[in-house]
Amino acid sequence: MDLGKYAFEVISAWGISLAALAALVWWSLRRDRRVRAELERTERDHG
């Protein structure tokens, strides 16, 4: 695949996009763990 003179821009855009997606997945998983732990505490305390 030849990207010509725009190779740097295209590869940079892909890299930034992948980094943003990875950050969103990490943030979602982190929040999921925190919310699940809070739900389990609430259920244990009130259930």
- The computed structural class is mainly alpha
Count helical runs.
1
What is the distance, rounded to the nearest whole angstrom, between the alpha carbons of the first and last residues? 59 Å
Strand composition percent: under 5%
By DSSP, the count of extended strands is 0
Helix content: over 70%
Global morphology: rod-shaped
Query: Major sheet: size, sense and barrel closure?
Result: none
Overall description:
The chain has 47 residues and is an all-alpha fold. It is built from one helix and no strands. The radius of gyration is 20 Å and the shape is rod-shaped. It starts with 6 loop residues before the first helix and ends with a helix. The relative contact order is 0.08. The mean pLDDT is 95. This is Heme exporter protein D. Belongs to the CcmD/CycX/HelD family. It holds the Pfam family CcmD. Keywords: Cell inner membrane, Cell membrane, Cytochrome c-type biogenesis, Membrane, Transmembrane, Transmembrane helix, Transport. The chain crosses the membrane at residues 6-29.
